[in-house]
Amino acid sequence: MILNCDQILDNNVFENLTFDTGNFTNANYNLRIGKFINRQSDVDVDVYCLEPRGLVVAISEECFNMPEDVIGYTTLKNDLSIQGIMAINVGLVDPLYKGPISSALINFGKEKIYLKKGSSFLRMTFHKFDKPKKCNSKRYEISPEHYLIQRSNSALKYLDNTFLNMNSICKEISNEVKKDNTRENNKYHLRVGALGVLLGGITLCYTFIIRPNIDKASKNELKNGFENVDEQSNYNQELKVLKNENDNLKKENAKLKENIVNSGDENYKFKK
Predict the structure, then answer these.
(1) Phi and psi at residue 70, in whole multiples of 5°?
(2) pLDDT, tens digit, 9 for 90 and up, residues 200-237
(3) Contact of 40 with 57, CB cutoff 8 Å
(4) What's the pLDDT at 225?
(5) For a tag on the chain, would you pick the N or C end, based on fewer CB atoms within 10 A?
(6) Within 13 Å of residue 191, how many CA atoms lie on the same side as its CB?
(7) Is it the case that residue 181 has pLDDT exceeding 70?
(8) pLDDT for residue 57
(9) How far is 116 from 58, CA to CA, in rounded Å?
(10) What angle do CA 163, 88, 174 make, to 5 degrees?
């Protein structure tokens, strides 16, 4: 059963009148900001400027004294949500809990948000249920002073002043980029080295295998060329000798004809 404002008062869910009757609605109660906490611990200001991507822990002004048969549900106020603020640890207020509650608020908007001490930040709804017979819950109690110390230590250890810690993320990204560049440079050097080995192998292969074969073939071709030149020279000399012999025969034939003509032998007719 969801409790209305009268039933909430009748069940004494708050400790020592820490609540404000003006914050009740028909079926819920609006919690007020009591203190701010960031990495500088407790921030004693009446107005806290929450920068874009900024983070702050808001502790409630109210302290609870929950009965064993009542549980509370917390949600962020709508007027903060529409400004870009998100509460990251809203949830339940357990039965038999005694003490304040808190929530980490993050500004996801593009503008600064000014949070005032005493202003509403969480909406509480209470639900009453039948007492369990087989389970016995234990009371958990913490004073406002100890709760403040506990949350301050947690904020100092785990939280940053901005969501996602952008400086750290940028540094990590830069380091990863440097690592990637180093890997790429190593790959480049390996490729260059492999190319150098390949070119060296090609050079050695050309010098000691291909080039000697080319030189040997060239020498053989040149030798054959010289032999062909010698054969051609011998042929030309033989042709010259035959030509001279032919010229000599022609001269002897001409003399023979001249002698016949001069002899006056009529029985021999020389036909030109």
Answers:
(1) -130, 135
(2) 777 767 676 666 666 666 666 656 655 666 666 777 78
(3) no
(4) 59
(5) C
(6) 6
(7) no
(8) 94
(9) 10
(10) 25
Exposed, middle or buried: residue 167 (CB in 10 Å: 0-12, 13-18, 19+)? exposed
Q: Determine the residue type at 104.
A: A
For 127-163, what is each residue's pLDDT tens digit?
999 988 888 888 999 999 999 999 888 888 888 777 7
DSSP state at residue 6: H
Sign of CA dihedral 10, 14, 19, 22: negative
The contacts of residue 56 (CB under 8 Å, 6+ apart) are 36, 37, 38, 43, 48, 50, 104, 105, 115
* Residue 70, C-beta contacts closer than 8 angstroms, at least 6 positions apart: 3, 11, 13, 95, 126, 127, 128, 129
Q: Which CATH superfamily is domain 5-164 in?
A: Deoxyuridine triphosphatase (dUTPase) (2.70.40.10)
Strands (E), the chain: 29-38, 41-43, 47-50, 55-60, 64-65, 70-76, 85-87, 92-93, 97-99, 102-107, 113-116, 120-128, 140-141
Distance CA 11, CA 126 (A): 10
> Could you tell me whether strands 140-141 and 97-99 are parallel, antiparallel, or unpaired per DSSP bridges?
parallel
Query: Closest Cα partner for 144 from 29, 16, 5, 1?
Result: 16
Strands 102-107 and 55-60: antiparallel
Q: Give the list of residues 6+ apart from residue 45 with CB closer than 8 angstroms, or none.
A: 36, 117
Burial bucket for residue 25 (CB in 10 Å: 0-12, 13-18, 19+): exposed
- What would the pLDDT profile of 237-266 be if each residue is shown by its tens digit? 877 888 887 888 878 777 777 777 776 655
Strands 55-60 and 29-38: antiparallel
